[in-house]
Specification:
The complex is a heterodimer. By secondary structure, chain A is α/β, with parallel strands linked by helices. Chain A is built from 11 helices and 9 strands. Chain A has a single domain, classed as 2-enoyl-CoA Hydratase, Chain A, domain 1 (Alpha-Beta Complex). By secondary structure, chain B is of the alpha/beta class. Chain B folds into 2 domains: about 50 residues; about 250 residues, 2-enoyl-CoA Hydratase, Chain A, domain 1, CATH 3.90.226.10. Chains A and B meet through helix 5, helix 6, helix 7, helix 8 and helix 9 of A and helix 7, helix 8, helix 9, helix 10 and helix 11 of B.
């Protein structure tokens, strides 16, 4: 620990946090435009009470909402080489990383957590979209490998929860190599006879969708989530026409047989428990909902 | 008429002059012959100089050179008894990925790869080497065939990327790529890949999760095109040059990152200036790689591939 981490970082964090509170009393629904009081929105699991639009939810809250009683144990993730390419665009990658770390209080864009859902053992690998758009680099790949190892070790089901724009460009080819790497990880879970379930959340695109995220035994999605390989803008530029209504949304993928189920956020724990119970010949207990946001959040 | 890249302009001018002089002489004019020989020596020196220090962006252009040998050229030179196989048995035959049975130095193999096409008509037919889900599903089918008959698989990678389109998404582009990567990684026969031109992102890795990965000297392999990267990170496609440098997409960079295993040297001035040499070089490399894995058990072959990919990224640039 140095003066930088002990003194400067908390100060900066305090500064950043203060600014957040007063402005955020009301949220505007991105779909219907209604204003929603923040407490009401949190109580409704960040789903618009007027139109049912599922807003993005932070990774910690996401995990609380899944695991029994909102509690889980975080896995320590191995350190990886930072900035392997010494990448710099208009800004250095190391600076972007530091900013994302300060903003999210996380090391990288994935959290690996174990706990139970309906009393059944589960390891979740959840992406943090707030960390550089949930992009997948070496650290994220390492997280998926770790999650798979824990699942096999503990004979637990693995749930991957992508929320990612795709590969982390700043790690160049090494980010592309996380695609095969993540595939190896989840195949080990499958070969061990354990369920591998993907909960596709908004957004799941690019190299993330074209690897582990499309290899689940079961694919579940939240309503309205954007899921696809190529970005809508790239497709529009290629074919030079407007995209069909609802293109690349969860319901579109359900229609095309790529997603099995579209499930509302509040029903996810029970649905996951039911599926894992069926696949592993167990009878799940009742799911225990998480306390309201701001309460105890599992963690180490 | 040969196509010259913008940075080859001085060489193009010299070669133009040489052609002109040749046209003037009727064969036995000593002065002109001497002049031609002198100019040819100069052109070669310039070529050597230019190609000795290509930038990442210049390599990208060489890798995309319209006359660069493509899958069809390699199949003609690398293997015999080629039996092209069509389709994913489901939807269509995607001509962006070609493949079939063949003999490589007498040994039966499955060979497949992206084909970009060589003129406007064939480029359209092959969709510029950009595959749709049925292309990757055809690749999976061919890998399964290889596994069933214990044939080694050779893949030649040359694609700008997977095709971005409405129908491709509707039929599960992401799923098809993911399954193709998975098929590569599950194979219990040797899989040897060569990046022969452009290794464009997910569309490339779908065929390249291999035991041994070869790259031709001036090929490029990247998570995103320099243009795409520039337009996202620099907010302007103009910076493609800088993006190409930053992405570390050249064969030397990728070898020091531990992503590829071997570089095959290209003839002076790039693969398109000496097709027989590059085919020979690649043939030697593939042969050595296949010998390395012959006699290994199926599980060992699969595990070697898995271990190699699990390690990727755990170390940074070694230089």
């Amino acid at each position: 620990m140095s003066w930088l981490t002990n003194f400067v970082r908390p100060k900066i964090r305090a500064l950043v946090r203060k600014a957040e509170v007063p402005d955020n009393l009301w949220d505007k629904c991105g779909a219907c435009g209604q204003m929603i009081f923040h407490r009401e929105l949190e109580a409704n699991l960040r789903v618009c009470p007027h139109c049912g639009h599922h807003m993005r939810v932070g990774v910690k809250r996401r995990l609380e909402l899944l695991f029994d009683g909102g509690t889980y144990e975080r896995a320590e993730l191995p350190a990886v080489p930072l900035d392997p390419l010494r990448f710099r665009d208009r800004k250095k990658y190391t600076e972007r990383l530091k900013e994302a770390q300060a903003k999210t209080d996380e090391q990288d864009a994935i959290v690996v957590a174990s706990g139970t859902i309906g009393g059944l053992k589960v390891v979740a690998a959840a992406f943090n979209f707030d960390f550089m758009g949930g992009s997948m680099g070496v650290a994220v790949g390492e997280g998926l490998v770790k999650a798979a190892e824990i699942a096999v070790r503990d004979r637990a089901a693995m749930i991957a929860i992508p929320a990612s724009g795709g590969a982390r460009m700043q790690e160049g080819i090494l980010s592309l190599m996380q695609m095969p790497r993540s595939v190896i990880a989840v195949d080990r879970v499958k070969e061990a006879g354990l369920p591998f379930i993907v909960l596709l959340t908004d957004p799941t695109t690019g190299g993330v969708s074209a690897s582990f995220a499309m290899l689940g035994d079961i694919h579940i999605s939240e309503p309205g989530a954007v899921i696809g390989f190529a970005g809508a803008r790239v497709i529009e530029e290629t074919i030079r026409e407007k995209l069909p209504e609802g293109f690349q949304r969860a319901e579109y993928l359900l229609d095309h047989g790529i997603v099995d189920l579209v499930v509302a956020r509040k029903d996810l724990p029970a649905e996951l428990a039911r599926i894992i119970g069926l696949l592993t010949r167990q009878m799940p207990g009742a799911v225990v909902p998480a306390p309201l946001a701001g309460g105890n959040s599992g963690g180490k | 008429m040969a196509t010259f890249l913008d940075f080859e302009k001085p060489i193009a001018e010299l070669e133009g002059k040489i052609a002109e002089l040749r046209h003037l002489s009727d064969g036995d004019d000593m002065n002109i012959a001497e002049e031609v020989a002198k100019l040819q020596g100069k052109a070669e020196r310039m070529l050597r100089q230019t190609y000795g220090k290509l930038t990442a962006w210049q390599k990208t252009q060489v890798a995309r050179h319209p006359e660069r040998p493509h899958f069809i050229d390699y199949v003609a030179g690398l293997v015999t008894d080629y039996v092209p196989l069509a389709g994913d048995r489901n939807f269509a035959d995607d001509k962006a990925i070609l493949g079939g049975l063949a003999r490589f130095r007498g040994q039966p193999v499955v060979i497949m790869g992206h084909e970009k096409g060589a003129d406007t008509t064939s480029r359209m037919r092959h969709n510029f080497g950009m595959a749709k889900p049925e292309g990757y599903r055809k690749a999976i089918r061919l890998m399964e065939l290889a596994e069933r008959f214990q044939l080694p698989v050779i893949t030649l990678v040359d694609t700008p990327g997977a095709f971005p389109g409405v129908e491709a998404e509707a039929r599960g582009q992401a799923e098809a790529i993911a399954r193709s990567i998975e098929a590569c990684l599950k194979l219990q026969v040797p899989l040897i890949s060569a990046i022969i031109g452009e290794g464009g992102s997910g569309g490339a890795i779908a065929l390249a999760a291999a035991n041994h990965i070869i790259m031709l000297e001036h090929s490029v392999y990247s998570v995103i095109s320099p243009e795409g990267c520039a337009s996202i990170l620099w907010r302007s496609g103009e910076q493609a040059r800088d993006a190409a440098e930053a992405l570390k997409l050249t064969s030397e960079d990728l070898r020091s990152l531990g992503v590829i295993d071997e570089i095959v040297a290209e003839p002076l001035g790039g693969a398109h200036r000496g097709k027989p040499q590059i085919i020979d070089g690649l043939s030697e490399a593939i042969d050595r790689a296949l010998q390395r894995f012959s006699g290994m058990s199926g599980l060992d072959i699969r595990d070697q591939r898995r271990d190699k990919f699990l390690e990727m990224g755990r170390q940074g640039l070694s230089s």
